[in-house]
Batch of 3 targets.
Target 1
Amino acid sequence: MYRRAILAAVPLLAGCSAFSGGDERTTTETAPTATRSPTPALPLTASDPASTLETARGIDVRNGRSETVFTTVVVEDGDRTVYSASGTVGRDETWRHENLVARPGIYRVVVETETGERTVHGWVVGEQWGSRNLVARLVTGAVTTRQYGICSPDCPPMRAEGESVPLPRESRTDPGQEVSGAVTLENAREQTAPVSLRVATGDETLVDYRYQVPPGVRAIVPVARTDGVYDLAVSGPDRRLERRWHVPEEPFPQFRVGVDGVASDCEFGQTRITGVRNSGGSTRTVGVAVQSGDRTGESETVALSPDESRSLGLAVAPGPTTLSVFVDGTERLTAGWTICPGGPLRVIVVDGTVFVRNDGRVVASAFAGG
């Protein structure tokens, strides 16, 4: 029995805020012995005081490795280095570089370790890009950053141009409804990449925009507060994708521009059905089956006592995906995606009622007796 996916509240979109990205891991703030090169007076400010941000932005380097790491942080404004520092960051410590920039703009940030791992990030500083510091994480074998901005459809100072209706498009029957469909555009390259987004429904084009997305940045475009099926096209430097986009079944599809062009997140192998839990009061036999893209279908069946969880390893490939859940031999839920669900997914069974969750958000459900 088919059940539509149910969109749960997403504070990021509901509040139209932006953030640089953090985690809940506790780290110790540290001020390591550092070497700083001569730089202009900081924080950088705009020539027009009215354009200067009230809160200057900085950079936090968090060491999640099991050893101390010698790290260099460089911030460039065009061809000028505005900040450079090197220092040792202890295990589980955070090295803070405060009050660097209060002038809206895009700055090139390079964070590199003495063993050669590095990341290049196009640091977007502006009101629509949050007031938190940019976070660089030192993880095993890599340095990572991420930054989000809300584009409705513009999000200065990131360059963008095109045509659009007022976004997100309001529901005619329920004005003020929370955003039910938004598209994320991410640049995973080391240089700024042009990314085009077009969304239409019937004869109406909702947005037809071209963005110059800096490296490491994720631009979130809230498109609609209305459920429905949309024609979606995303183009990068080397590839164009066209999809039928089902909302709310696929509420927040993500597209990434990598070395091989633009692809949806599941094409990077990030989406898996990772586990199943019986949260009810009776022992249940739960079967989970997935058919996606051109891949042969996979399934696993487990017997679960009350409050028992079990890990699964079912992968989701690019393309149309169907997920089916069976409880005690009876099919209780079938959910489908055209692009791909965001992952990882977990299946929760509560006395015959089935929920499919992604990061705590319910993306599909079927109720007992429904």
Target 2
Amino acid sequence: MLYTQKILANETFVITPLELQTKLSSQPNSLLIYDVRSVEQYNTEHIPQAISFPFMSTYEKKNNGYYVKDKKHIESLLREHGITNDKMIVLYDDGSLFHASRLYWVLALYGVKNIKIINGGLTLWKQQYSTSKIKTDISNSEYIPILNSSIYANQIIAKIASHNQDIYSLLDSRSYEEYIGETSVTDKRGHIPNALFINLKDFFVELPNGVNWLKNIEYLKDNLSHIPRTKKIITYCNKGTASGLSFLILKYAGYNVAHYDGSWIDWSLSDLPVEK
């Protein structure tokens, strides 16, 4: 029982359904809850008081690559969704945490504070509490984005990281089959030279009800032991969802970490080397 309690303990960037329900009951005006799934999924059912904010709306597609939108467009999005640093921001997806983590990174990149992700997502929430179909209206805010460039990496930085292993370490958050070149979403197979592999499945425990639950950071240290703490870590995946989660896990485990915007698809679109 002690092991179970520890492994299921809450982490800095996650909030449990129970904790959220408690806040909704006692301090409903202190929260902004965002459903990062599609509008269609939101309309089917969502957590009461949640606002639809599809994570895909933060992407800009250029030359088949996916990148975060520029400051002007993000500012408009954040204001339309009522973003403010005066309230706790709570994000959720279906429970994978990938899509919620992507939006978390975008918000953090543009200076939003006090962000949480629901551990277990909507899947776990539905097993404990009711959902709603009522659309939540939100007033525009006057939020002014402030870029946090320390958590952003582009292709130039990724190339530097690949060649300068004394200062940087690249971290591949895709599947192992993609990492070793057995499969790929692009014409290129393999990984960015000198990148390490991280298996995100190791970061979750499956609960008896089928929900994937993010483990306590203390139980993840063995899975992080191959990642050097003395270097700047650059995470990447295919287009920036899975690596958003690895970014968060490393950030709250005390690493100096940034996310490679564009990720493997961006790297593959250029005439750059790969390893298998």
Target 3
Amino acid sequence: MEIEGGGFLSSNNQQGIMIARSLRRLTCKQLNNAVTDESNPNIFLVDTTSINTVVLIGFVKSVNKTNAGVIFTLTDTTGNISCAFFTNNSYEEIQIPLVVEGGLIKVIGKLRTFNEKKSVTVTHVLECEGNDFIYHLTEAFYEYLFNTNVITPPKKKTNTNIESDVLSVFRNNQGDEGLEIDTVVGMLSGNYRETEIRDVINNLQLECQIYNVDDTKYKTTT
């Protein structure tokens, strides 16, 4: 095992494909090195783990605004990747001004490939600070170590504070159109299992403490 460029460990251990997490913090290098599953070319693998929704933090460069949205390059300490953010509603349109050359932003989206070139189709853009950038890189490295069995994660909390924590995440981060379930899961994944978080969200909806805005977004009633 040795350290490769970009600060990531390399392991030759053969491992089975792990089930995808809803939200995965990654770096540009990890996305550019992602491979497709032999049985399904639409599934990308990072560290033998299939990925669904990805989170990146980096600096913006090469901004090209279009009538449909904005195309830009995101760069971090590990490399660059092309991103496309096409807006479909007013909530997404107000995120466009965050994409300015030299700005530090967080993007959430899906990995795509065209002509063998990787890119990210962005669904959300969030403003962030330098501390967020450092935390993101640290967490991406930690998740790499976990997924390659270099370390064993600490036992998840099973206390009764999960309902309060879920409500706090909604109240502190929801916009006019609510908050994505995957975002809530990602923010609390360090403390609780995904199934626990989703069960609490379902219970909160039944108790009328949150309501469904669309298929994937919820908002608190108070």
